[in-house]
Amino acid sequence: MLPQTELSPRMQRAAAVVLGAMGAVGWQSTHWWPTTFVGVAGLTWLLLCSRQSLPRARSAFGLGWLFGLGQGLVALLWVHVIGWYVVPPLLALMALWSGLVALVTVAGARLTTRWMPRAVIAACAWSLAEYGASRVPFGGFGWLRLAYTQVDSPLAGWFPVLGVGGVSLVVALLGNLVLGLFVSRGRARWLAGVVCLVLVAGAPVAGRTPASPILDQEPVSVGVVQGNVDGSAGPDAMGYARSVTDNHVSQTVTLMARARAGLDPAPDFVLWPENSTDVDPTLDAQTAGLIERAAAVSELPILVGAVMRGPGEDERQTSALWRTVDGEITARYDKRNLVPFGEWIPLRDQLLPILPVLEQVGAQSVPGTAPGVLDVQLKDGRRLTIGDVICFELAWDSTVYDTVQNDATLLVVQSNNGTYTGTGQPRQQFAITRARAMELRREIVVATTNSLSGLVLPDGSVQARTDEATAAARTFTVPLREGLTPAVRVGPAVELAAALAAGAVLVAGLLRGLRRRFWTAG
């Protein structure tokens, strides 16, 4: 049996921070995924296993907030490269969601004394927090979801069945049930053990979900170019815009040399990463000339990652442009999920006078509105439907799912991680990419400016991955696929149902507290 907590308030607060930090070690780049369960179970233990009465709502929320602060200090500290001014508000804001987890957990404990319902409610609380964090505020920041720690764990088999949201629920439930094996007795302990066994043993069975069906069409060879940029972390890591584009031209030459030497297959098109040109090639002749040089060498269409001017004054869009062999742009996708304070400034008019340093963000980015699907034509006349996800968008279920729901047959990721070279961010993002490949059961081809390009297979394994802060050029031949996995069909509903259940518990707990206060006052 685990000892019940008998800690002073100060020790409880310190323990919350430490437990949050321990749980955060489950994310990349350390990626000790078992510690995720330590964090989940530790928070519940701190809240519910005291010799004293359950903590009041304010105290519970405070412990949860401190837990989230410890989590962010370990897993999200890489945001400091954007600017020191981002770290305190982001960590404080994101920790509010852990405070919500604690609040719901304690509310559920006040409604029932049985461990199994308490464990289920605590697990659903994590779903509610992740659901909210992925949407609020400023479009959300759903980067630290429990599921992303599990890409190499035995639970990874649940991805194609339950999706990212469902896997997070499984992780939270398993963590609380393992705690139940130590703190409960009799029938509750046996029931917790049985459910744990089902969750763990069911994962490899779920993992046998077949890959999405392959179309009866010729595979496509994608030429991935990683041009490399200034490797120092920080807002100036991309260096001079045209030198970055020039680097990608040079690696396009290398790509074609490898193909003509027989080291790689001949590509059907060239994939450049996000921000491979930071200057609008439709307005700048020099940038257009650099892309033209790459096109002349490859004699292939190029999917260019570009920053486009407009649609309004002092506005910009991060876009993917399909440039044909003839030099025409026949398809375009505009990034929909933007980085707050990195690509755009919320409350810009109010904040700029107070924090002039925000001027470094540059022109205000404007999100796109259409799904990331490009209907294009290859040089040999074949039609191809590309599902494109740009960098930060990987964390949004709806944005990723939109690609396959709109009939994409080939999935690519364009990313610029140059700003975060040497931090844990690129590895966290690559783990998210692997989770997406597993839940969609499709190959994903990744092109980045200078960190971790490659090919991820439908089972989440990595066929090839480049090194960080290096130039590289590789061609990957992948089949075209169709269809939706159960993860896409039911995964969002699983997360929503769990979030609604947690919300209902929270409302019931608040109403009960108000009713008691009313009668006591009377």
What does this 3D model show about the protein?
- The structure is a single chain.
- The protein is of the alpha/beta class.
- It has two domains: 9-209 and 488-521; 220-344 and 354-480, Carbon-nitrogen hydrolase (Nitrilase/N-carbamoyl-D-aminoacid amidohydrolase), CATH 3.60.110.10.
- The protein has helices at 9-24, 34-48, 57-75, 87-111, 115-133, 159-183, 186-206, 241-260, 285-298, 348-351, 397-405, 425-440, 486-521, and strands spanning 220-226, 269-271, 302-309, 315-323, 329-334, 364-365, 373-377, 383-390, 410-415, 444-448, 454-456, 462-465, 472-478.
- The strands form two sheets. Strands 1, 2, 3, 4, 5, 6 and 13 form a seven-stranded mixed sheet that branches. Strands 7-8-9-10-11-12 form a six-stranded mixed sheet.
- A hairpin with a 5-residue loop joins β3 and β4.
Quick structural overview:
This protein has 522 residues and is α/β, with parallel strands linked by helices.
The overall number of domains is 2
What is the CATH superfamily label of the largest domain? Answer: Carbon-nitrogen hydrolase
Number of helices: 13
Helical residue percent band: 40-55%
- Termini separation comes to 42 Å
Q: Tell me the strand percentage band.
A: 5-15%
The fold-level CATH name of the largest domain is Nitrilase/N-carbamoyl-D-aminoacid amidohydrolase
Poorly predicted spans: none
Number of strands: 13
Structural class: alpha/beta
Succession of helices and strands: HHHHHHHEHEHEEEHEEEHEHEEEEH
The gyration radius over C-alpha positions equals 24 Å
Q: Return the CATH architecture of the largest domain.
A: 4-Layer Sandwich
How many strands, which pairing sense, and closed or not: the largest β-sheet?
7 strands, mixed
- What's the mean pLDDT score? 92
